[in-house]
Design a protein that fits this description.
Number of helices: 9
Distance between the termini: 53 Å
Order of helices and strands: EHEEHEHEHEHEEHEEEHHH
Number of domains: 2
Largest sheet: 11 strands, mixed
């Protein structure tokens, strides 16, 4: 059974997949209800939707996963982006009354050096506080992970000398249910200007699940009230072409003088042929820095050959996460049944005097 988008209307790019369904009237006994809070800017909003839709669909197998879409207020939007949210997303105000199995919170493009100065900060922290009490687990991606540890434990992120950009090898740092059947060595994409440091995380009670010599801490977790918070500094959800699109965007920003330096190619991503073509373009762009040269960017010779070598590992991690949600759901139901039975028994004894 495929991933089911709740709300009656399905984002068009997902509908084009052909076999996707909206919410149905009859629901199986075993099912999960998850929120995706997609805060990405308009340029990546729909791509991010599709990445998580595909990943959850692959990971869920025969388990029905009902997904509700939300986005934070305070993220700058174009008219087109806002229309998309109006058509396919629920109002964040409706989240506070929900009790869900899990939630996924994406990052967004930071505009302030201090995350607490972002216009959406207060609302984002409200989401974290809500998730602690109303989910069995919350996934925080990239900037959301940085915001989560800052809010919960006062851990500041650290600025990197250059963008952490590419596909990096990581290794499992400990045994954990989320790492079941995951190979000892894995690869995940990263794209960030800041990092969280292992010693500061472990000192605050976080458990590091994977880490990389090249990219630092990757996946780490901590139980917060009722919920297991799962943090990704990387982006296992990325599709094969995501890093390419981001690199192309950064090249455009250089040519339009929105950034001072020409971007480095993502590490561990392009093959030798693609690297050669892109380096030749870089030489031309450096010699003639103007936007019109983007017409000669070597896209067609590269994009069709890109592969997501991390996809099977990403699906495995998210499959483990969904299984954790299902097991937590069962434990919660058993606890509620036992609590209700105990309460009823006590009431009977009181009534009998």
């Amino acid at each position: 059974m495929p991933l089911i988008i709740e709300g009656g209307q399905i984002p068009p790019r997902w509908a084009l997949e052909g076999n996707r369904r909206s919410v149905v009237k009859t629901r199986p006994t075993e099912q999960l209800h998850i929120a995706l809070i997609n805060n990405m800017p308009d340029a990546a909003l729909e791509d991010t939707e599709l990445q998580f839709f595909d990943l959850l669909d692959d990971a869920s197998g025969d388990l029905p996963v009902y997904l509700k879409l939300y986005s934070l207020n305070g993220i700058p939007r174009t008219d087109r982006g806002q229309r998309h949210l109006n058509n396919f997303y629920y109002s964040i105000d409706g989240l506070w009354q929900d009790r869900l199995d899990g939630v996924i919170v994406t990052g967004t493009e930071p505009r302030q050096p201090n995350l607490k100065d972002e216009p959406y900060w207060r609302l984002l922290t409200d989401v974290f506080d809500w998730a602690e009490r109303n989910t069995n687990s919350a996934v925080l991606s990239c900037l959301a992970a940085h915001a989560g540890v800052l809010h919960g434990d006062g851990i500041e992120r650290h600025r990197l000398p250059d963008k952490q950009f590419g596909v990096f090898e990581s290794e499992k740092a400990c045994n954990h249910a989320l790492m079941d059947v995951v190979p000892k060595r894995v690869y995940f994409p990263h794209s960030r200007w800041n990092e969280l440091r292992e010693d500061e995380l472990t000192s605050a009670g976080y458990i590091v699940l994977t880490k990389s010599a090249g990219a630092g801490v990757d996946v780490f977790v901590k139980k917060k009230r009722e919920s297991l918070f799962v943090h990704f500094q990387g982006h296992p959800e990325y599709s094969a072409q995501t890093l390419f699109k981001e690199y192309r965007r950064d090249v455009k920003r250089f040519l339009s003088n929105e950034r001072e330096t020409y971007p480095a190619m993502p590490a561990g991503y392009f093959d030798a042929s693609a690297s050669y073509l892109l380096d030749e373009f870089r030489k031309s762009a450096m010699a003639d820095r103007q936007q019109g040269i983007m017409a000669f960017f070597p896209e067609q010779g590269i994009i069709s050959a890109l592969q997501s070598g991390w996809r099977s590992t990403a699906a495995c991690v998210y499959r483990n996460w969904l299984q954790f949600l299902l097991e937590s759901q069962t434990k919660t139901s058993m606890f509620r049944t036992m609590t209700t039975a105990s309460s009823n028994s006590q009431e009977k004894r009181l009534a009998l005097g």
